[in-house]
């Protein structure tokens, strides 16, 4: 009976096994390796049926990273709900630690400026003439008076003597 059922499913189309659904409502399917009615081998596939069918509205993060790793074949078994919740909790903890570290760095930097431990870096934008249009001198050209071989480095004249 099972062989008849499998043959009927193969004839009507590919067999999809529902593996799971994520918190966004995306459904994940596994299509095992099969043989078509002509005897051709069809390799196994992993598919996602997204909630939002419009691909132009898809954004990064609509598929959890655990499920994406399963679809791409980076992991053998599909993720469990507990694993997804644990990873989400650890991501939130990391975000909080980063925010706390940035806040501490900002406070210590402000204290260093206040105590005079750090001086202002004076760069091009800090120069007094920055942003002011100051006309330059007229360019000097030696094009009309230049004689080939007449120029020598400053120390070269003393070395020949």
UniProtKB/TrEMBL annotation:
Gene Ontology biological process terms in this record: mitochondrial respiratory chain complex I assembly
Gene Ontology CC entries for this record: mitochondrion; respiratory chain complex I
Location of the region described as Disordered in the Swiss-Prot/TrEMBL record: 128-161
Composition bias type Polar residues, residue spans: 138-148
Domain of life of the source: Eukaryota
Family label: Belongs to the complex I NDUFA12 subunit family.
UniProt protein name: NADH dehydrogenase [ubiquinone] 1 alpha subcomplex assembly factor 2
Lineage: Eukaryota, Metazoa, Chordata, Craniata, Vertebrata
């Amino acid at each position: 009976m099972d062989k008849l059922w499998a043959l009927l499913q193969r004839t009507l189309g590919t067999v999809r096994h529902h593996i799971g659904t994520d918190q966004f409502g995306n459904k994940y399917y596994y299509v095992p390796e099969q043989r078509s009615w002509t005897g051709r081998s069809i390799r196994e596939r992993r598919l996602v049926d997204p909630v939002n069918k419009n691909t132009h509205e898809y954004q990064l993060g609509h598929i959890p990273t655990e499920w994406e790793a399963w679809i791409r074949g980076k992991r053998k078994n599909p993720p469990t709900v507990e694993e997804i919740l644990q990873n989400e909790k650890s991501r939130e903890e990391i975000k909080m630690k980063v925010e706390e570290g940035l806040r501490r760095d900002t406070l210590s930097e402000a204290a260093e400026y206040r105590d005079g431990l750090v001086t202002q870096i004076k760069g091009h934008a800090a120069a007094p003439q920055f942003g002011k249009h100051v006309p330059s001198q007229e360019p000097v050209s030696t094009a009309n008076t230049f004689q080939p071989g007449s120029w020598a480095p400053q120390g070269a004249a003393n070395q020949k003597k």
